[in-house]
TrEMBL record:
Subcellular localization(s) per the UniProt record: Cell envelope
Secretion signal span: 1-32
Species for this entry: Isoptericola haloaureus
Record protein name field: Sugar ABC transporter substrate-binding protein
Pfam families (UniProt xref): SBP_bac_8
Length: 464
């Protein structure tokens, strides 16, 4: 997560969503990132905590959590600020350097290692133990996504996500498929299996000819069977990872804290080569089209894409698209005989430089409690980290007409793969993003390109 590349936010704009009673200059508040002990009009001794998050879809639920928390903790006021995904990390890194970061912020498995290695976020292990928090209440693996190489714990789990196959239900019915058919799809790198047959059937050229019919023109496509947003870099969560992972590939030698990555594994090259072949066949758009600036959700809603792999965190946004009935099925079964998905989770972390670590801990503890996570479950936006709250979220999704089982199947069957955790992720991505862009922009054998990139990644991991 999750990434929010397709979340409808405005990058570069901080939304001041909860303000102190006495409103001071708007511009100054929008840029405030460090807690203040009190403000004009605030009760004596009241502490103001700044809390950052990037996903606008989740703001209402966390506003409610903040209000509930403040009722129980009248000495603390929580100011919630939301930034778009890209701007979020740029701003957060800059604030860390300037020693003015938010007191508490939503953290990602691929980012926390960097901050932990620079001692910029607090190890909360002692606080967790003192509060007697039951770490077994969270879905398996989530706690590990915030655990450092020293064994310290640098955040508490807030939610989890997997990916699924979102599709235009009317287009699928018109093509002759029933919803249950999509739960039986399988793929392989030789001929694509029934999954590629499905994508061919869903693809339609400008003359109305389907991809599995004579006369189909792959150079003049009106509806692509499968959409995507970019090449996926070294992660590929909503791009190539479901295929590579179900082809027997793994990201690294160990996780969390790998010493080397496995981008030179033939199982990855094989999966990527098949995935790229969908472009050549016309079933998937070329990379310049996919990265043209039109989001995948918008393209699904407008009929440009018939289906796409996307994260559970965007389920509600998909369901709320106007004029289109969007449903979801699980990822296809691969050569291993199982489905696959990245299993990722976010945490809430405390800035090491906060002036109010005790109050910040109280807020993080509340965020990770059933009291807040049940509220989040009732919003039907994400799956909370606590297992019992996850079950409530499944019920909420079902009431909204969203097939939550398509995501939960990976938890139930153990087919989720933890997101890579390393303090070198930015360096890994700086190598893998252009490498994967090169692979997706050419027809060359991806093996040598990936092998060269893997060698450079491993040199980074070895400090060479």
């Amino acid at each position: 997560m999750h990434r929010s590349d397709t979340t409808p936010t405005q990058p570069g704009i901080a939304r001041r969503l909860r303000l102190p009673a006495a409103l001071v200059a708007t511009g100054a508040l929008a840029l405030a990132g460090c807690a203040t002990s009190s403000g004009p009009g605030a009760p004596d001794g009241q502490v103001t905590l700044t809390y950052w998050m990037w996903d606008a879809n989740q703001v209402p639920g966390y506003q409610q959590c903040a209000q509930d928390f403040e009722e129980e903790n009248p000495d603390v006021l929580v100011n919630l600020e939301q930034y778009g995904w890209d701007d979020y990390w740029t701003q957060l890194t800059a604030r860390m350097v300037a020693e003015s970061a938010p007191d508490v912020f939503v953290d990602h498995a691929q980012q926390f290692g960097k901050y932990a290695s620079f001692d910029q976020i607090l190890d909360i292990s002692d606080r967790v133990e003192a509060s007697d928090i039951d770490l077994d209440q969270y879905q398996d693996g989530l706690v590990d996504l915030s655990r450092g190489p020293d064994g310290g714990l640098y955040g508490l789990p807030k939610d989890w996500d997997t990916v699924g196959l979102f599709y235009n239900a009317d287009m699928v019915a018109e093509a002759g498929y029933a919803p249950e058919d999509l739960w039986e799809l399988e793929w392989n790198p030789r001929d694509g299996g029934t999954f590629e047959e499905f994508l061919a059937r869903m693809t339609v050229d400008e003359n109305g000819v389907r991809g599995d019919e004579p006369g189909f023109d792959p150079s003049r496509v009106d509806v692509y069977g499968l959409g995507y947003n970019e090449s996926g870099g070294g992660f590929g969560q909503v791009q190539w990872a479901p295929y590579a992972l179900s082809n027997g590939w793994t990201y690294a030698d160990t996780n969390p804290w790998p010493t080397s990555f496995d981008y030179d594994d033939p199982a990855l090259a094989e999966a990527i080569e098949w995935w790229r072949s969908l472009i050549e066949k016309g079933y998937m758009p070329p990379l310049p089209v996919a990265t043209s600036g039109i989001g995948t959700i918008e393209s699904l809603g407008s009929g440009g894409y018939a289906a796409l792999i996307e994260g559970s965190w965007n389920s509600r946004a998909m369901a709320e698209l106007q004029g289109v009935d969007v449903r979801v099925a699980p990822t296809p079964v691969g050569p291993t005989g199982e489905r696959a998905s990245v299993f990722n989770g976010l945490s809430d972390a405390i800035y090491a430089g906060t002036e109010h670590p005790d109050e910040a801990w109280r807020w993080v503890e509340y965020l990770a409690s059933p009291a807040c996570q049940d509220v989040v479950a009732a919003e039907g936006r994400v799956f909370p980290a606590i297992s019992s709250s996850s079950e409530k979220a499944v019920a909420t999704f079902s009431e909204l007409g969203i097939e939550a089982d398509a995501f939960a199947v990976h938890v139930e069957d153990g087919t989720g793969t933890l997101s890579p955790v390393t303090d070198r992720w930015s360096e890994v991505q700086s190598i893998m993003q252009p490498a994967m862009d090169e692979v997706m922009s050419s027809t060359d054998d991806p093996g040598p390109i990936l092998a060269d990139a893997d060698a450079r990644v491993d040199r980074v991991m070895a400090d060479e």
